[in-house]
Amino acid sequence: NAGVTQTPKFRILKIGQSMTLQCTQDMNHNYMYWYRQDPGMGLKLIYYSVGAGITDKGEVPNGYNVSRSTTEDFPLRLELAAPSQTSVYFCASGLRGPGGNTIYFGEGSWLTVV
Amino acid sequence: DQQVKQNSPSLSVQEGRISILNCDYTNSMFDYFLWYKKYPAEGPTFLISISSIKDKNEDGRFTVFLNKSAKHLSLHIVPSQPGDSAVYFCAASAGNDMRFGAGTRLTVKP
């Protein structure tokens, strides 16, 4: 039972480099999210998507881009990496239930920008 | 602006006793609330949720209470077990937006 799969798990980037964090889910969820977790700061929403072809900014979108060409995949692109983007990144997917959205997370991607 | 706050960074309880984790929110538009549990080097795991039309939801040893007038929710774990030791995040959502608190580290001592 794969759920939400993120790759890579660990990556070191140099300042100014670009990279893509991959996220795929096999639960046929409409909603997908990218969060970052900084120490002691909880989870901050970067971008989210309510379905293929639709994306929206969250709290901290600057320096990132996303696309949602299929239901399964929601890659996060970092352009011109900066030390402030050193963080743990979590992808999540979810469905809208009777009360609201319940989302399920991947295992995280640890990114260090040096 | 921190719309969801967990003011206690850590909590320590004895095995078998009750653990109470607290969460406050500021946005009255939030209508769905969740608790997640996180172990080191893993993603958060969904624990329990509550809709704003309820004031209590139980699932086994876990109960979530919601006080809308105070904009406060709490998670009760009874009885606490050493395996419950983890970081607990509360989350609040309005529509497609979901915000998280900073987390409370729970330690359950044998």
Run of helices and strands of chain B: EEEEEEEEEEE
The low-confidence runs of chain A, each spanning 5 or more residues with pLDDT under 50, are: none
Helical content of chain B (DSSP H or I, runs of 4+) = under 10%
- Nearest-integer average pLDDT of chain B: 94
Q: Which class of secondary structure composition applies to the elements of chain B?
A: mainly beta
Oligomer: heterodimer
Whole-angstrom Rg of chain B: 13 Å
Number of helices of chain B: 0
H and E order of chain A:
EEEEEEEEEEE
Distance between the termini of chain B: 38 Å
Please render the helix and strand layout as text.
The complex is a heterodimer of chains A (114) and B (110).
Chain A: E1 4-7, E2 10-13, E3 19-25, E4 31-37, E5 43-51, E6 54-57, E7 64-66, E8 76-78, E9 87-96, E10 101-105, E11 109-113
Parallel strand pairs in A: 2-11
Antiparallel strand pairs in A: 1-3, 3-8, 4-5, 4-9, 5-6, 7-8, 9-10, 9-11
Chain B: E1 4-5, E2 10-14, E3 19-25, E4 32-38, E5 45-51, E6 56-59, E7 62-67, E8 72-77, E9 86-94, E10 97-100, E11 104-109
Parallel strand pairs in B: 2-11
Antiparallel strand pairs in B: 1-3, 3-8, 4-5, 4-9, 6-7, 7-8, 9-10, 9-11
